[in-house]
Specification:
This protein is mostly helical. It has helices at residues 24-31, 37-54, 85-104, 112-125, 136-160, 165-187, 189-195, 198-227, 231-251, 257-285, 314-317, 329-366, 384-394, 399-442, 454-493, 497-503, 511-547, 551-555, 562-570, 574-673; strands spanning 17-20, 69-72, 79-82. The protein folds into three domains: 1-134, Alpha Horseshoe (Serine Threonine Protein Phosphatase 5, Tetratricopeptide repeat); 136-305, alix/aip1 like domains (Serine Threonine Protein Phosphatase 5, Tetratricopeptide repeat, Alpha Horseshoe), CATH 1.25.40.280; 370-445 and 452-516 and 605-673, alix/aip1 like domains (Butyryl-CoA Dehydrogenase, subunit A, domain 3, Up-down Bundle), CATH 1.20.140.50.
Amino acid sequence: MEAVPRMPMIWLDLKEAGEFAFNAAVKKSAVSVPRDFEGCSTLRKYLGQLHFLQSRIPMGHGQDAAVPVTWTEIFSGKAVTHEDIKYEQACVLYNLGALHSMLGAMDKRVSEECAAGAFTYLRDHFPHSYSVDMSHQILSLNINLMLGQAQECLLEKSMLDNRKSFLVARISAQVVDYYKEACRALENSETASLLGKIQKDWKKLVQMKIYYFAAVAHLHMGKQAEEQQKFGERVIYFQSALDKLNEAIKLAKGQPETVQEALRFTMDVIGGKYNSAKKDNDFIYHEAVPALDTLQSVKGAPLVKALPVNPTDPAVTGPDIFAKLVPMAAHEASSLYSEEKAKLLRDVMAKIEAKNEVLDQFMDSMQLDPETVDNLDMYNHIPPVLMEKCAALSVRPDTVRNLVQSMQVLSGVFTDVEASLKEIRDLLEEDEVQERKLQELLGRVPPAPGSPPGLAEVSKECSKYLELHEKASFTNTELHRAMNLHLGNLRLLGGPLEQVRAALPTPTLSEDDKQVLQNLKRILAKVQEMRDQRMSLEQQLREMIQKDDITTSLVTTDRSEMKKLFEEQLKKYDQLKVYLEQNLAAQENVLKALTDANVKYAAVRKALAEVEHKWNTTVQTLVASYEAYEDLMKKSQEGKDFYTDLEGKAAKLLERARAACQASEAHRQQLLER
């Protein structure tokens, strides 16, 4: 796999700057940076100097020295203006992340961790209301995309370095985990509406990558099983890798040639591994092949992280050009308070993330989607693929008749050829009988001198035609069998739509079954409500922390009273923390109720799955019959052409056989008369 072509990566556009009453030369150099690492350095320096400026001059929202700051919003292209220097900082920070993502998507495959760090700092330290492209949902999506792509780069290097199979599998599994988080965000209706047109493209690529890297993970688990001589496990891991890769190939429709090339390359590797492993196990090792769900799942190894951003790092920002403007005491105290707020946020987020991880794992294991938990609506309609076939046959009403007539003509020619060959064979056999009688009568074993030579040639040619006829007879029988198999389906597709709908299986649910379904849906809705409330409370906490500026109070507070002031100020978060604790505590009861509901749902789920399988099988069978029609007609015509040609040859051979047999009989009569 070390030679596999690289998958493309997602990168983000940079925002365009507008009005900001700052030194024109500084502004120009900071917003029109080159698309390289020098540009990243310039943005970091500008960000740091803005931070120094903001800490000394009241240029924030609603403050005396605030001036308009204008930047273009990425998705809509609209100019967005705020009188807040932090908006300028936020946009520069966004561009820093976007530029790193752009550089990371290039051949060198670096910089995604820097991009994730920039977006994380932006999400955690700035308001999300500035513009749509810097909302909490979009930034969280960007972070997971960048971490996923950073882990993907690490996976590429690990395969090139021939690291141990189990480690490569865990690294690949973590790529899948990051992309699953990104996919959840992309599937969120609010995020989708914010992203607009690019949402579908990103979602398709990310979904394809989830299956692709899951296949890579199971490929390397299979290689580990091979190293451990667990040949049954090797087969099931390679089988799973093949299944997941096939799903990736389905989702890769419309992706660029580089993706298709990577998929073809990987298919060659995995397909070869699977075929070899299965053959070896079938003929050599004979180990039982376990079910995949009985094996330990591959736990991801997160070996990348969002690199932290420190806007005041002198190694990055250079000298503080505003150092003489304002004493730093108030700023230092504010930084200490900011750290207290950050500690509070870290503690709360640790609890939230722990509960979210449990919830995500639980929901993944349940495999319950509130939108498709019953799929009952699909049975009310004929699927579009089947409607398309019905419509096509409705304008070709003679389809079945043409097929039957073609097969009847073929049968007629077949029968004629068979009759001619039988007559030739009978003539030859009769001549052979008469020849033996003559030999017995005359007492000579070898043929009499002067016997006609044509019969041997006729016999040889007859044998050749009989052999051709026998081979073609098998094909003809298979063709008739195939026609009989598809004829009923073609008649159904060409008939009324009501009959087609009636032919498709539908589930029959009792009132108790329906009640079980409704209860399960209700609890799934509770799970979603709990998720939404948790996200809302987290968002409120973040916004509250970002808006919490006590610089004015710090200026008038004695240093000895700072700790007490911090404690008093932090009490404002207590109520939100209580709400979050209640939300987190409720999770256990909600999941217990969901477990109970899922147990009751098991029988209904099984019945629905069976009906859905039958429904899909019926649809596929009907579609296959439609698609087989042209092939049947083609093969029928080929059969007619073959037998028409053979019929002509057999008819000529029959004439020759008759003439040769007559000549042979005349020869025998001459011998008897001597």
